Each structure stands twice: as C-alpha cells, then as structure tokens.
Amino acid sequence: MRENGRSERPQNRTDAITSGRSMVEMLGVLAIIGVLSVGAMSGYSNAMRKYKTNKLVSEYNYLIFGVLEYYNDFTNLSRGTSLNPYLEKLNLIPQSFDKNGSYFVDVMGGNLNVWKDSSGIVVEIYFSRPSRQNFGISCKALF
Hints:
By secondary structure, the protein is α+β, with helices and mostly antiparallel strands. The protein has one domain (13-142). The chain has helices spanning 13-19, 23-69, 71-74, 84-89, 132-142; strands spanning 98-100, 103-105, 111-117, 120-126. Strands 1-2-3-4 form a four-stranded antiparallel beta sheet, with no helix packed on it. It is rod-shaped and about 95 Å long. The model has no long low-confidence stretch (mean pLDDT 81).
C-alpha cells in the first residue's frame, strides 16, 4: 500500500491475473447459489400449498357453520330446493369462490352445491383432482 491509502497497481500481467478470482471459483459460487435457490423455492411452494389448503378449510368451515346457523330457516323450503342463492344473499359463500351455473367453484377447483333434502340439508363438495397430492391434502384437512 502507498502512504495515501490506495493500493498499488500490479506491475505486470502475471500479478493482475493472480490477484483476482478464477472462473472455476465463480462457477462454484454460482452452483451453490443455484442449489440453495432450488431448495428455497421448494420450501416456498410447500408453504403456499399449506396456506391455500388451510384457507380453503377455513372458508368451508365458515360456510358450514353459517348453514347450521340458518338451519331452521331452511327447513320450510321444499325438497330439492337449491340453497345456493340463499347462501349467496346471506354472504355465506366466500369471496374467493366463483359461480359456475348453479354451483360454486372453490380456489382449488372443487365444486360446491347446497340443497334441501327430505332428511335435511345436503352440502355436496366435489373436489377436483388435478393431482393426487392436492386431492389428498384437501380431503384430510377438511375431514
């Protein structure tokens, strides 16, 4: 080092080459970063899947408890009546659900239909099956 605090410049080409990092070292660092990134993305996708499943279970619980709360009001309806319009007016259908004809579709693609039967109220939930893993998680978490 010089007196003014600046480092000295290499005097010849050989000193300049040996003072830096080699390409192999840089590729090694990039490989390590790549492996760590893949692990982080895997953990993130698992966390997001669990979050979506827990949110879906929470939304179905809200819906089912709402149906139970208004159960006596629904008993006066005739057999075979769809309760979907009533549930929509009572704001019991979660905002994340889409309407597809006479039934609702949840965020994971499952179909929901609620109707009055002679024995009571029927809540039909048909889980879609894009992959065995999502199907199993949704069923286990809900039931």
